[in-house]
Amino acid sequence: MNWDWLVELFTSGKGIPNAVVVLALTIAIGLLLNRIKFGSVSLGVTWVLFAGIVLSQFGLQIDPEICHFIKEFGLILFVYSIGIQVGPSFIASLRDGGIKLNMLAVLIILLGCLTCYGIYAVCDHFDIKSGEDLTTMVGVLSGAVTNTPGLGAAQSVVGDVAAKNMASAYAVAYPLGVVGIIISMLLIRWVFRIKIDREAAKATRSDAPRTVRVDVRVTNHAIFGKTIAEIGRMTRSHFVVARIFDHENQQRIASGETELQENDILRIVVNSQEMELVQSLIGDVVKVNDEEWGSASSHLEKRRIVVTKPELNGKHIGDLHIRENYHVTITRVVRAGIELVATYELRLQMGDVVVVVGRANDLEQVSTILGNSVKRLDRPNLYPIFMGMFFGVLLGSLTIPIPGIPQGVKLGLAGGPLIVAILLAKYGPKYKIVTFTTNSANMMIREIGISLFLAAVGLGAGSDFVNTILEGGYMWILYGVIITMLPLLIVGVIARKVMKMDYFTLMGLMSGAMTDPPALAYANTVATNDRAAVAYATVYPLTMFLRIFAAQILALIAMSMA
Fold it and tell me: Residue 310's Cα: distance from chain center in Å?
């Protein structure tokens, strides 16, 4: 039987069938190798990259244009899913620690450039051939920090020969650039003896007080006879009175027009930062357990209802008039794992879980109004995904002119979709755009995207990868590892020891400062929350801009010295 067709299918390097089978085999082998662990550590999906490199040495290739498309499309899928995940908490993260994170990312970039130039200067002084060319070192730098747009920007300002050398240095340094970031994370973890379960528990405790529930007895004579709405205006704070024990020991649902009397007991849900302010105005904190609330008035219940009606997406809670019409109080809204105080101004989103208190019959009516049909959420909403990709690519292709630079800077096919996804997730509901995606669907998109990206990068390394290393490129690997790890370890120690940064945020900072999706994919497998993803998204836009800018500046310096 003639098996030439099968050999040609894998090695022709042409056509769609060849691309599909080679990519599928590469990803399958890489994910199978994911089971290999070094102690308790696995490289995760990064194995797909090494599977691609090895298979390319055995002649398995795909069409370069198809390979390039797969790489970019996979990257777009990955970063878009990250943006949708972190969007709801992104703006808050900018306020809470965004400046600090971005300054640390800038320090990593600066140290990386100084390390690159330092290696060039040492090689030039001692006449070490593999490092005497600064343009080649710019390629090593781009590979070491896994930044393809920076490579392209640097190539645009040099000649064809120098551009080719850059590309070779980039390809050699890139694989261990990915691994070097992960190794840096592991070294920080080992040096500071970080236990993931303890770190997760600490992070959970620090995340928890977004909303708190407290029982307060009305003792302030200044508010006797005033309504809850008036108190809210006096404090300018965000709180909800879920239930009230009045001075006659009767439990009832409170509304904005409820007047407070001496010794009323209020069960309040409030932002932790505003708890002391509300408490100081109303009165003394008292201990009333849940059993007492329940036994005092068994006709009131608490339920969790899921918002599944598309027409409610973007509506203010106050616009629904739930409390006025149904005597039911919405106390909290759980969104993407974050608890929010259910103020009248808060906009609902598809997939929100609202915590409500009221009578059983009233709760049934409210449940019907909000939807509470989990099956409806199982159906994917593809429109915002492809619309977001469309506008993301447009944004990423927009050239930003920089004085003194021959070509402007672009956010690229990763930065643009990431920013658009964040903005859609945060502000889409305001404009009636449903951006809800189930966690399982988001994870599927993310894993498919990063697997395609890594497989394409590995296969694109080419059959001359080993020859390049043997002919002196092994020194580029050494230089790349130094450029990758030295800045990360210096900043990692500063962030952990001086700034007391939690490990999950630190991993996200490292991944984002290196604009490295595989490292983030590894961090997400370690983290038990979305802190790594939030930190990555926080520093990524500025980092991408500066990486491109720095690569072009170094290339221009190299040209001026030639």
Answer: 25
- Residue-wise pLDDT for 376-433, tens only, equals 666 777 788 888 889 988 988 887 776 665 566 666 776 788 788 888 887 877 777 7
- CB neighbours (10 Å) of residue 399? 10
- 500 φ/ψ sector (left φ>0, alpha ψ -120 to 50, else beta): left
pTM of structure? 0.67
Q: For the chain, how big is the Rg over CA atoms in Å?
A: 28
The pLDDT assigned to 529 comes to 75
- Number of C-beta neighbours around residue 255 at 10 A: 15
26 Cβ neighbours under 8 A, 6+ residues apart? 48, 51, 52, 55, 60, 455, 458, 459
Tell me: the pLDDT tens digits for 304-349? 888 888 788 778 888 888 877 777 888 888 776 667 777 777 788 7
- Give yes or no for a contact between 261 and 224, defined as CB atoms under 8 angstroms apart: yes
For residue 122, the tally of other CB atoms under 10 A from its CB is 11
Helical segments of 300-344, H only: 317-320, 322-326
Where are the alpha helices (H) located in 210-349, listed in sequence order?
228-235, 275-282, 290-296, 317-320, 322-326
| Cβ contacts of 460 within 8 Å, gap of 6 or more | 52, 56, 64, 67, 68, 71, 171
Q: What are phi and psi of 529, to 5 degrees?
A: -145, -175
Residue type at 308?
A: T
**β-sheet with 329-335: strand ranges across:** 300-306, 353-359, 329-335, 338-341
Q: Which CATH architecture has domain 4-204+380-427+434-561?
A: Up-down Bundle (1.20)
Task: Assign 366 to helix, strand or coil.
Answer: helix
Report strand pairing: 283-285 vs 353-359: unpaired
State the DSSP code for 316. B
Are 373 and 126 contacting, i.e. CB atoms less than 8 angstroms apart? no
> Looking at this protein, which amino acid is placed at residue 491?
V
| Domain residue limits, the chain | 4-204+380-427+434-561
Report the distance separating Cα 352 and Cα 372, nearest Å: 10
Helix 134-144 × helix 474-493 angle, to 10°: 60
DSSP 8-state symbol, 436? -
Cβ-contact 401, 416 below 8 angstroms: no
Q: Report the range out of 333-342, 360-369, 371-380, 526-535 with the highest average pLDDT.
A: 360-369
